[in-house]
Design brief:
The complex is a heterodimer of chains A (245) and B (195).
Chain A: E1 4-5, E2 10-19, H1 29-37, E3 43-57, E4 60-74, E5 80-85, E6 88-94, H2 100-117, E7 123-136, H3 143-146, E8 165-172, E9 177-186, E10 193-203, H4 214-232, H5 235-241, E11 243-244
Helix pairs in contact in A: 1-2
Chain B: H1 22-39, H2 53-59, H3 63-70, H4 83-97, E1 98-100, H5 103-112, H6 119-130, E2 135-143, E3 148-156, H7 164-173, E4 186-189
Parallel strand pairs in B: 1-2, 3-4
Antiparallel strand pairs in B: 2-3
Helix pairs in contact in B: 1-2, 1-3, 2-3, 4-5, 4-6, 6-7
Classes of the chains: A alpha+beta (245), B alpha/beta (195).
């Protein structure tokens, strides 16, 4: 069990299941899926997603804008939602974070519902991502006072940064999994300094996790994310979040 | 040490800036071509026909498309499924052209009305094209009389002439359809203040 905070910085938690290409998917899937989750996620919306794709054509390679539809299903308070697109299931929890005990059952509901309506052949990617937004008072911030994960700036370089981004990918479970940790400055409220600490733990090897172990993987990923989060911050930042004993 | 950003010099990190260095162009192009080829599982020999396309994309100001395609190389999710990151990206793009009044309230509004996240860049783009000389300001407006709130994009000019309202209506017409049947709202208007 990780530490608990009165003012946690989590602005979004995202759990993502991407299915392998050999999993059949058709237009009836969203409707069948909705029937199974509407007690939890009754509010339905549709969004059009555009992606650039390259395909070999008679005149050589062609780039096309591919449009796919994604269905979004929201809980009544609109703070937790499920996104369903071709071979893609995403569960998003927005601020205020409902705690892991509150989020995990929603992930289970959505994942089980998908397994009921789709014959899943494999998992291309699973991801558990926590996005933290931390805002500081309007004054210069010494990152090392708040973080144990920050860019090192040698003494011969200017010590003031207008902006920064730092990304590291850590291997886990013999590189079956990876955790991409990013700390970056972002748009803050007026005159305030803000950073985003983005922790994205994901399955880096497609099909390396069996479908029946999907939820176990998510639980394990959550433990790693907690460790990494605590490893990134100092007690001074913990004090800002107001730890609950 | 990270200094506090002033209102109009917000750090913009994920946004690719205009590329003017040939080396940078080649580097980005090379990575983008590889990324595009990787996406399609194409052999390396087929990358060559793509030489130049990313440069053309960059010249057309579509660098963001190219950079988006580079993401899969780092084993990231091929498309970002985070609502927060999508909003942050929109805010970063907006900060180039628009003075954001209380970004946190805009952020909260977009989190509440996720349906209109896509509409915001369209509206700003339309406003910028119809009023290239204008100062644009965005804020969340709260109407105390009817307990309603919505996004407002103000167009401010140095001088307002008779064609102003017509231009405003034309700009609005470009994104109005995208607001249909959505709970959130974005109003393009002016407060007739001087830019």
């Amino acid at each position: 069990m990780g530490r608990k905070y009165k003012n946690p910085p989590i602005v979004e938690a995202v759990c993502e299941f991407r299915l392998t290409e050999d999993t059949e998917w058709d237009l009836t899937v969203p409707g069948l899926f909705y029937e199974r989750v509407k007690h939890e996620f009754p509010l339905r919306e549709q969004r059009v997603i555009q992606a650039l794709e390259v395909i070999p054509g008679p005149q050589g390679l062609q780039h096309v804008i591919r449009t796919t539809e994604r269905v979004l299903m929201f809980a009544p308070d609109r703070k937790i939602l499920v996104q369903l697109g071709p071979r893609l299931l995403v569960i998003n929890a927005l601020k205020p974070y409902p705690t892991w005990q509150g989020l995990k059952p929603r992930i289970e509901v959505a994942w089980k519902a998908l397994q009921e309506v789709v014959d899943i052949k494999g998992l291309e990617r699973i991801g558990l991502r926590y996005i933290n937004r931390i805002e500081f008072p309007p004054q210069a911030v010494e990152l090392q006072d708040y973080f144990d994960f920050y860019p090192f700036i040698g003494k011969r370089l200017p010590q003031e940064m207008a902006s920064f981004v730092m990304v590291v990918e850590f291997p886990y479970v013999e590189d079956r999994d990876r955790c991409r940790v990013q700390l970056a400055s972002t748009v803050g409220a007026e005159a305030k300094t803000a950073v985003i600490l983005d922790i994205d733990y994901f399955l880096a090897r497609p099909r390396a996790v069996d479908i029946s172990n999907g939820l176990n993987w998510v639980e394990e990923a959550h433990s790693h994310v907690e460790e990494i989060f605590e490893g990134c911050i100092t007690d001074r930042l913990r004090a800002m979040f107001e730890e609950v004993s | 040490m990270l200094t506090s950003p002033s209102e109009l010099t917000i750090p913009l990190l994920n946004r690719p800036g205009p590329k003017t260095s040939v080396t940078e162009l080649q580097r980005v192009e090379s990575r983008a071509v590889k990324a595009l080829a990787t996406l399609c599982d194409l052999p390396q020999s087929l990358w060559l026909p793509w030489a130049g396309i990313t440069q053309r994309l960059l010249q057309r100001g579509s660098a963001s498309i190219v950079m988006e395609e580079i993401k899969p190389l780092s084993k990231r999710s091929p498309e970002d499924v985070s609502i927060v990151i999508e909003i942050e990206s929109v805010l970063e793009l907006l900060a180039e052209n628009v003075r954001l009044h209380d970004p946190n309230r805009i952020r909260e509004y977009l989190l509440r009305f996720t349906e209109i996240i896509d509409v915001v860049p369209r509206a700003v783009d339309a406003a910028r094209r119809h009023f290239p000389e204008a100062q644009l300001i965005m804020e969340v407006y709260e109407d105390p009389e009817i307990e309603d709130c919505y996004l407002v994009l103000y167009v401010r000019l140095k001088q307002y002439d008779d064609s102003f309202v017509e231009r405003l209506e034309k700009a609005e017409a470009e994104f109005l359809d995208h607001l249909a049947d959505k709970e959130g709202w974005l109003q393009l208007t002016t407060d007739f203040r001087e830019a």
